[in-house]
Amino acid sequence: MRNLYRLIATVFILFICATAHEAVAQQKGDWTLGARCSYYTHTGGQTHFAVGAYVRCTPVNRLRIEPSVMVIFGPKSSVDLSADLHYTIPLSKKDKFWLYPIVGVGTNELSRWSVSVNLGAGFDWFITHHWVFTGSLRYMLQTADHYYVKNPIVPQVSIGYKF
What is the pTM of this model? Predict the structure, then answer.
């Protein structure tokens, strides 16, 4: 079954790459809706897998706001609500690759409800004019008071559609 999933993913990626054309991104008024997978590490000796969704809006060129919701799976299911701010920096002349720092706030319930400050970085790869693949890494400074819930380091991968 795992090989079938790999085959489907490979065919999908090849299809997207074969239909790719020049992308224009991060302009005022852009909206992106996407799905995300995350791993919450450094949370009491366990890694928690999470899935969720995000919305990006670009109120001014290169500056965007990204609210997101993640459902965290583990011994106790939880939720992570975040609102991050990105300043996008182009890495290629055709605007296919972008780098951005992450600054934001959030709340989650990994043990008890906690407020966090999110710091990190990410990159966007515009596969086509509308489809974007994103990878990011966030460090969450939390107010959690349990010794086994540290400040998580959260690697994330996402796929989104830009309107």
Answer: 0.77
Closest residue by Cα to residue 153 from 34, 72, 37, 38: 38
CA distance 11 to 17: 10
pLDDT tens, 72-131? Answer: 887 777 899 999 999 999 998 788 899 999 999 999 876 678 888 999 999 999 999 899
Q: What angle do CA 87, 31, 18 make, to 5 degrees?
A: 95
CA dist 150 to 24, 42, 144, Å? 39, 6, 8
Closest C-alpha among 107, 105, 110 to residue 147: 110
Residue 126 structure tokens: 């515009």
Q: What is the maximum span of the chain, computed from C-alpha positions, in angstroms?
A: 50
